Predict the 3D structure of the following.
Amino acid sequence: MSFDMITLLLVILLQQAPLAPVPAPSPESAAPPPTAPMSEDEYTTLVRQLDSPVWSEREAATMRMARANIEVPIGRIETSLQEGGLSLEQVMRLLRVMEIRLLHAARGAIGIQMPLNQAGVPGDLVRVSGVRVSAVIPGLPAEKVLQPGDLITHIDDQPISNREDLARIVQRHWPGDLLRFRVVRTSTRPGEQEAERSRTEYLELEITLGSTDDLRRSGGTQSVLDPALVDRRQRLIALYEQYGAVPSMIPAPLDPNRIELETEADPMIRGILRQLEAAREGRYTMTMAQLRTQMIQKLTSLETALLEGDLPEEQRRILERRRVRLQELIDSADPQRRW
C-alpha cells in the first residue's frame, strides 16, 4: 500500500466523516481527571463496545476512549491494533481515537512567552543553557509560579536548550499533569552596594499544566508553538497505512505537498512553499536550515508589525493567519525533528 494512497485516504475520511466535537463537561458534572490506568477488563469492554450494533454505544465508547488520556495511553491502543483480532469497525474507530489524540486534543501548556533569540538580562552573571521567560500570560499556570526573566534549564530532570525543547516536553503531557521545573532567577535589589545588588537563586518549582486551548484563547501576541505536530501527523498516517482499510476504487494519488501549494491563498506563503518543495528535491540554492532561518526572520518582522495598535482590522486578520502558517512551516522545516 503506497504512502500517497494512504495520505489521500486519510484526507477523504476526514472530509466525508468529520469528527464530532468532544463536548466539555459542565462545571457541575466535572470530576478530577483520573490518575491511574484503566483496568484490563474495563479496557476490553470498551474495545468491544466499539463494535456494538447500536451506533450511539459505538460513538460513546469512541469518545470515552478519546478523552481517556491517562487511563488509556496511546501505546495501549497501538498494541491492540498490532495484536489484531478486531473487526473493521473497531480498527477504524481506534484509528479515529488516535487521530483525536494526536491532532485535535488539547495538550499541556504553562502559559509563557519565549524570545526567538536567546539573550541575557542585565545583572545576569550566570551563563546557563535554557529558555528565558519573556512574559507570563495572565490566567495560565505560569503566572503564579514564574517571573519574566526566569531561565528554565530543566523540566522533569530533562535539560532544555531552546524553546522547541520546552514545547516538545510540555506538550507530551496532558492538561492537569504536574511537571517539575528547574529555574535560575536573577533579581536586583536597589539601594545596596554594586557588588551585592544581583542575587541569583536556583529554584525547583512545580507547575500543574493548563491546556493549549486556553493558551490559544488568551489572545497573546505569539502563536502556540507545536514543533511535534508534523511528527504526530506522520505517525497517524503511518498507522492508517499499516492498519486502515483501503477503498476498492480511488482516484490516482496526489502529492499532499502539491495540494497544499495549489490551495494556498497567501502569495507569500505560496512562495515559501515553492522554496521548501525545491529544497526538499535538491533544486534550490538554499538548504532547509537556511530557509528555516529566513522564515524565523520573517516571523519576527510579522510579530513586530502585529504589535502596532493602529492596523486596519482586515490587514491584522491577514497578518495573523500568515503568522500562524509561517510558524507551521518553520516547525515542519525543523532539522532536529524525528521521523
Residues 313-332 form the longest helix (20 residues). Residues 3-106 form one domain. Strands lie at 108-109, 112-113, 131-132, 135-136, 151-155, 158-159, 178-188, 198-208, 210-211.
